[in-house]
Design a protein that fits this description.
The complex is a heterodimer of chains A (about 250) and B (about 260). With about 250 residues, chain A is an alpha/beta fold. Chain A is built from 9 helices and 9 strands. The longest helix of chain B has about 35 residues, at about 45-75. Chain B is globular. Classes of the chains: A alpha/beta (about 250), B mainly alpha (about 260).
Chain lengths: ~250, ~260
């Protein structure tokens, strides 16, 4: 009796280890695992839904800061597709030999200043962010959005004293949306899809273009699904969804 | 020597459980870049994070002592439904996911929160993103550990000591200070150590409520999380520092937890 319990427990444990990578016990062949930068969530959720209706592939997303996903993948996390918010982190994976096919740039994004609805603090330029008493939140420089924000502030020759360096760009957005921060630097797409904050545009000579590459991974258990997902992202349909979410197509 | 023989299957499971605890610790120790240990631990960012963590966790424990001991006293002297409700409320932060605790703190003490909006509009005080917020997050998550330990101590107290003191003419406050508190010393000590350890390890509520800024709200666990993505070596070393602290706590508490006489 006890022996049987042990056997069941151990096999259960082993089975859990084995299948965790395939994610989805019933239909492993049709599942695609996509690791994507946090800023892509609104667009990719829609693309995932489209893939399910057109190609019968069910997509499982893991959204986080690009730097978090990169370290997870280099530590051996399994995924079929990686979509990064910059080329540097994709290059880290290329150098580590984890990318299966040449990467494709599928979208670009610009930065914008997120402020409370109606812009009560009258913020119109990056220079305004240096105003004393203003609570400004940025993404940490280890996060692509934080690195881009630093570049934009440097372009505008502004020194900002941030109240917090959030661990992903969505953290910046939520602090502004909750009213805890007066302003934050996020992607245009974040503001388009959030609906809870207003955006103040940053002129092109100060702005930074974020480039989003996508690639299938060598650890893929579903290469066909990975290809189908990437094809859809690059298709007219996928590009339209990305544009509606505030990204610029390629 | 009439020890019961433990079935082999259970011993095997116990071994598996022990291995599950020990392997990650072994991983930390084996993979640690010992040759860079001094440089990495001594780096300005690490020292800042360690200092801040120490300050926040000690302050949180002090607040927990001031508020938690009276709370434990009240809990131990109530009964029935009131006690169940009070107890559930006190232990809630122990079972609540810390990130949820952080969101709750934002909605209460944030600039637009229940209490925070008065502070902000009336006095221009904003709590989130300050060291005070980090201390509050740690207190919120860690205080229940102290309350539970002290309440347990109070329940097992022999009421006759307090009755005797009262019969000899001592008033309520004096009985508490001269009789109850000294008798509770072991429970308070272990509760405070547990509370401090929990405060030191706090991550979720802190990052949500206080954010992340070096020297202000970036405590060691947050520094470990960020370093893991940028400088994995220093993340491992910082983790080892926290591990060493935990071991030191175990050693300090060995009488209580390790069953030594």
């Amino acid at each position: 009796m006890t022996k049987r319990v042990v056997v069941v427990l151990v096999t259960g444990l082993l089975a859990a280890c084995g299948s965790s990578s395939a994610s989805g016990l019933s239909t492993p062949q049709t599942d695609v695992t996509v690791f994507a930068a946090a800023s892509l969530q609104p667009a990719f959720d829609k693309i995932g839904a489209r893939l399910l209706t057109t190609k019968r592939f069910k997509t499982t997303f893991s959204y986080a800061g690009t730097q978090t996903l990169t370290s997870q993948l280099t530590q051996g996390a399994q995924a079929d597709v990686f979509a990064s918010a910059d080329k540097e982190h994709m290059n880290t994976l290329l150098d580590a030999g984890l990318v299966a096919a040449p990467l494709a740039v599928f979208a670009t994004n610009k930065l914008e200043i997120a402020v409370a609805r109606g812009n009560p603090k009258g913020i119109h330029t990056l220079t305004d962010l240096a105003r004393p008493g203003l609570v400004v939140v940025l993404a940490d420089p280890s996060v692509p959005a934080g690195k881009y924000a630093q570049q934009a502030l440097r372009n505008a020759r502004v020194t900002v004293k941030p109240a917090s360096l959030e661990l992903q760009v969505t953290g910046v957005l939520s602090k502004v949306a909750l009213g805890e921060a007066d302003a934050g630097i996020v992607y245009v797409s974040d503001i388009v899809t959030s609906g809870k904050v207003d955006g103040v545009s940053i002129p092109d000579d100060e702005n930074v273009t974020a480039v989003y590459p996508i690639a299938p991974l060598k650890s893929a258990t579903n290469p066909a699904g990975a290809k189908a997902f990437i094809d859809l992202v690059l298709s007219t349909d996928g590009q339209a969804i990305l544009k509606a979410a505030g990204f610029q197509g390629v | 020597m009439t020890q019961l023989r433990v079935p082999a299957a259970l011993v095997a499971l116990a071994g598996l459980g022990l291995l599950f605890f020990l392997l990650p610790l072994a991983g930390l120790i084996v993979r640690a870049p010992w040759n860079q240990a001094a440089a990495s631990i001594g780096s300005a960012e690490t020292v800042t994070a360690l200092e801040l963590s120490f300050f926040c966790s000690v302050t949180a424990t002090a607040i927990a002592l001031v508020l938690g001991i009276p709370l434990a006293l009240v809990l131990s002297r109530t009964s029935g439904t009131l006690r169940s409700v009070l107890r559930a409320l006190t232990t809630l932060p122990m079972v609540l996911p810390p990130v949820v605790g952080g969101v709750a703190l934002l909605l209460a003490f944030g600039r637009t929160g229940l209490v925070g909006s008065f502070l902000y509009q009336g006095f221009g005080i904003q709590i989130p993103f300050t060291t005070a917020a980090a201390v509050m997050a740690e207190t919120f998550v860690a205080m229940p550990f102290l309350v539970i330990a002290v309440e347990g101590g109070m329940r097992s107290l022999d009421p006759r000591y307090e009755e005797a003191a009262r019969a000899l003419g001592a008033r309520g406050w004096m009985v508490f200070a001269r009789v109850t508190l000294p008798l509770l010393r072991p429970a308070i000590f272990s509760g405070a150590v547990l509370c401090w350890a929990r405060a030191l390890g706090e991550f979720g509520a802190t990052i949500t409520f206080a954010g992340n800024f070096p020297g202000r709200t970036q405590t060691v666990p947050i520094a470990v999380y960020i370093a893991l993505e940028t400088h994995p070596d220093s993340a491992i070393l910082l983790s080892l520092v926290l591990l060493a602290v935990s071991v030191a706590i175990l050693v300090a508490m060995r009488d209580r937890w390790l069953g030594a006489p």
